[in-house]
Amino acid sequence: MTRPITAGVDGTEESLAALDWAAREAVRRGLALRVVHAWRFQPHEGIDAGDPDTQARWARDAVTQAVRGVAERHPGLAVSTDVLGDGPVETLVGAAADAEMLVLGSRGHGPVVGFLLGSVGQQVIAEAARPVVLVRAGDQASAEAGGREIVVGQQGDPDDSAATLRFAFETAAARGASVRAVRAWTLPPLFAYSPASLKLLDEAGGLEPYEKKALAEALRPWRERFPGVHVVEHVEMGSAGQVLLSVAGRAQLMVVGRRAHRTAVGARIGSVAHGVLHHADCPVAVVPHD
């Protein structure tokens, strides 16, 4: 089944930037674009906010206006629109289930913090079954050129990062870009050592060679599947979030994996995804593990 790229729009500057990003990606991949807006009737005391039919018409008109510019810039792109009546989280999570990826806008917050991730965005990222891309207001198509890379974080065994690497390589192939695969490592505490792990480290020649070997093994099937994609293998000591952010200036897109963690106050995304989302100044794709 061919899935569309879906953009969630609400009329804000950041959602329009996300719509533009989604349209360009749909053209590159030869996919359709679906534009989704979550709408519910909201009466306001003392303000003539219209009746439900009037508000629904306003919502449809806003989506139509947003899509008009995209259709003019990409005349061959198939675009569909949906104004849906559920809450924003339910609407966006449902839309993501049928999409190749869901693209959302996120407000920039000064020169240091890249994304202001509200409760809706965090819930959607934690619950969506498909990749979610966050795009800042002011994102420019020019940032996708000039040799900038698709930066992807790799952790654990090859199976742990398969979905994340697949997304990064597919994106790089569609853009003619290179991939920088980043694996961060830290010194384990003494209690983490065991005779079996010590044997593996000894065979690899030490901790850093072991990490380089692990990254190469994780990348092998994707190099074979995408032989035209240039790959830079980046292994560095440090926390995963810090190492990824240290190379964010090279990135036209940052790709990280996530496992959602359930707590008493709801779903939370992992610390690496959380850190990158709040500090990277490029679009960020969060890919759920298979």
UniProtKB/TrEMBL annotation:
Signal peptide: none annotated. InterPro entries: Rossmann-like_a/b/a_fold (IPR014729), Universal_stress_UspA (IPR006015), UspA (IPR006016). Residues 1-136, 149-288 form the UspA domain. Pfam families: Usp. Belongs to the universal stress protein A family. This is Universal stress protein. It comes from Streptomyces dysideae. The lineage of its organism: Bacteria, Bacillati, Actinomycetota, Actinomycetes, Kitasatosporales.
